[in-house]
Amino acid sequence: MERPVDLRGVEEGHAPYDKSLSNLIGELSTQSEDFRGRWAAHDVRYHRTGRKRFHHPLVGDVELDYEAFELPGDPGQRVNVYTAQPGSPSEEALNLLASWSAREPALDARPDDAAASAPLPGDAH
To answer: Where is this region: Disordered (predicted)?
Structure first.
């Protein structure tokens, strides 16, 4: 099955004078007959949905589905939404990361006045 050339969101049409992009396309074209043929056929597209794998240093590999949404009021801008499959190891990893960033409620937010005024461990009286 033929697959489109994937430039990971880089589109020549949005940056026709980008020298580094032109150099990359030139390099790929000289090194890959397959790329050269697909590029010449304009078999290139922006992926609006799919699955990506990330490696997080604390929880390891995480596989997420994504969907890209165009921002109609700001041409060329997109918002990518990533989600993990329910019940997957990736969802568990994201939940673990989220739990680490959750903040504990402030002591003075407790309804019990005695708890709010209680000294913290290590406080001198």
So the answer is: 105-125
pLDDT at 73: 86
Which residues lie below 8 Å from residue 9, measured CB to CB, with a gap of 6+?
46, 47, 78
The whole-angstrom separation of Cα 39 and Cα 21 is 13
pLDDT in tens, 26-54: 898 899 888 888 777 775 566 788 899 99
Put simply, whether the predicted model's pTM sits higher than 0.90 gets the answer no
Q: Scan for tokens 């406080």, then name that residue.
A: 123
Q: Which helix (DSSP H) or strand (DSSP E) does residue 26 occupy?
A: helix 19-31
Of 51, 28, 23, 48, nearest to 38 by C-alpha is 28
User: What helix, strand, coil percent values describe the chain, rounded to 5?
Assistant: 35, 20, 40
